[in-house]
Task: inverse folding
């Protein structure tokens, strides 16, 4: 136990970069272009921007405001903040999701992040450049993941070494604290990854037509594959849900990390401009950079038929098989492949440190440990919790963790916090809170949007997603009998983790803030 | 890429660059004070 002092950000640009860093990740460069190409191309941008302005940006402001408001009372995680918004004993248990969700995502995300470091290494050393067909590249990925023993890898050893390095980097940043660790790292990593992405984008856009035998397979037509609008897609509810879902997932809202980051602000610090700046940085990385790299490049090398197959094969295949294969065919390919994987790795680290921070903040502030002790406890615990994702990857454990942590908790938590802030806390107080210290006047009509449209939109997404995708996963449809015990064990483990956190929250709130529920 | 594709590309880029420029102009116009 120690004399525990509240941490704070060193500068405004520091927190903007940290929140943008939390949002910018693999989804910007891999998920967005695939979603857009498969859901109406340019027409996808209509529901996308509507969702950005009706859900994404309002939720950003809501989370920044709740976080700063909670921080005034010494709360750095969602349970205490929710109890301040809605003074009942129940509300803190909704807040448990804000620690549980990011922790669950961290359990598998950091392993995928470590693949990016591994692939950066294999790109720079020319190993990836020597693989020239999709079958071998897929075998390389499977061997690296330990799913099969082949001529590239005989075991999971190399992947585990890169995992250890990645874990130590994350732990080191967390040990250094908010200003000295997270902020310092994000202020370097964010501009670096954006510069890397711009370099790759310029290379892609100047590639022209790489195959003289197929002059139509060129970058401009590749951009057309992504941007030519198919207006009939707008009549499909699936397109609108895909766009709303993309906005929701890309901005890192509904996880709980922005609440913790914003709790380190002071009472009079701006949240309106900072929240909008972080969202716009993420959109720049997603639409301008993410939309100009992977799909045009894949089109130019695989043509109109191949790109449809590739776009339908999922983001992972695109990132870890198609992209290195393409880089192996262009001049200075090793360098560009390294830039590609390393920028994704940096984007991964800025996201993963944000995922682990709520747990560290909870241990530190609610149990009065100093930063280093709290970071050590959380690092040791999460190191153990990460192991199932590594060793049971082929058993569906990562998909299961992604479903509960990366999808279910996100949508549920986002809906709950929007309703608590605007209805339980009250829209007038919420509006006042959003404007305290603001360097930007939020247009008046947003008061109406935040009160009615955002929660309604979120409820529609929650129910539509639940019946469209959620139920089949909960019922374990399509899960093989061999994988069933692993899925059930994962669910039992997650339930135990949630209950443990809920007990910790109850103990901490009772001891530290007995007045909060009154 | 057809005409509408270019329209969607440039209008999307314009919205994002415009929003980003507006935000960061305001952030940097007021000196990045210590929080």
Result:
């Amino acid at each position: 136990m120690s004399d525990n002092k509240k941490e704070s950000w060193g500068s405004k640009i520091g927190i903007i970069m940290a929140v943008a860093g939390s949002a910018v990740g693999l989804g910007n460069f891999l998920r967005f272009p695939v979603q857009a190409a498969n859901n109406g191309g340019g027409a996808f941008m209509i529901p996308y921007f509507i969702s950005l302005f009706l859900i994404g940006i309002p939720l950003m402001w809501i989370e920044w405001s709740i976080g700063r408001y909670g921080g005034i009372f010494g709360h750095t995680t969602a349970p205490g903040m929710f109890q301040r918004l809605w003074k009942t004993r129940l509300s803190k248990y909704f807040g448990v999701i804000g620690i549980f969700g990011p922790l669950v995502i961290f359990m598998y995300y950091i392993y995928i992040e470590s693949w990016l470091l591994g692939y950066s290494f294999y790109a720079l050393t020319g190993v990836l450049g020597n693989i020239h067909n999709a079958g071998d590249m897929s075998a390389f990925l499977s061997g690296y993941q330990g799913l099969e023993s082949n001529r590239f890898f005989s075991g999971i050893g190399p992947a585990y070494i890169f995992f250890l390095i990645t874990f130590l980097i994350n732990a080191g940043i967390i040990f250094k604290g908010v200003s000295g660790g997270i902020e310092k790292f994000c202020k370097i990593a964010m501009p670096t990854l954006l510069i890397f992405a711009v370099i790759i984008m310029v290379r892609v856009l100047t590639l022209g037509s790489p195959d003289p035998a197929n002059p139509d397979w060129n970058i401009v037509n590749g951009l057309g594959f992504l941007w030519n609008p198919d207006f009939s897609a707008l009549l499909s509810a699936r397109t609108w849900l895909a766009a709303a879902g993309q906005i929701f997932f890309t901005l890192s809202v509904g996880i709980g990390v922005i609440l913790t980051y914003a709790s380190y602000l002071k009472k009079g610090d701006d949240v309106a401009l900072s929240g909008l700046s972080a969202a716009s940085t993420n959109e720049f990385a997603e639409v301008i950079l993410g939309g100009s790299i992977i799909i045009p490049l894949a089109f130019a090398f695989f043509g109109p038929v191949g790109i449809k197959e590739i776009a339908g094969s999922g983001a992972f295949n695109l990132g870890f098989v198609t992209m290195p294969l393409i880089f192996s065919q262009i001049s200075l390919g090793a360098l560009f492949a390294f830039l590609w994987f390393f920028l994704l790795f940096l984007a991964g680290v800025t996201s993963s440190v944000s995922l682990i921070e709520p747990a560290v903040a909870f241990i530190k502030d609610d149990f009065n440990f100093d930063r280093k002790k709290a970071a050590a406890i959380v690092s040791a615990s999460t190191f153990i919790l990460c192991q199932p994702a590594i060793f049971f990857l082929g058993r569906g454990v990562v998909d299961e963790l992604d479903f509960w942590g990366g999808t279910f908790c996100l949508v549920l938590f986002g809906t709950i916090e929007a309703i608590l802030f605007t209805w339980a806390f009250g829209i007038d107080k919420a509006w006042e809170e959003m404007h305290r210290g603001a360097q930007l006047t939020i247009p008046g009509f947003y008061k109406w949007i935040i009160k009615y449209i955002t929660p309604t939109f979120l409820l529609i997404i929650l129910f539509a997603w639940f019946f469209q995708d959620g139920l089949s996963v909960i019922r374990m449809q399509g899960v093989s009998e061999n994988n069933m015990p692993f899925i059930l064990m994962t669910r039992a483990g997650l339930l135990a983790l949630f209950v443990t956190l809920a007990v910790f929250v109850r103990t901490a709130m009772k001891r530290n803030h007995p007045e909060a529920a009154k | 890429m057809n005409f509408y594709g270019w329209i969607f590309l440039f209008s999307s880029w314009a919205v994002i660059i415009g929003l980003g420029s507006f935000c960061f102009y305001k952030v940097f116009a007021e000196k990045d004070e210590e929080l």
Summary: Helices of chain B lie at 3-29.
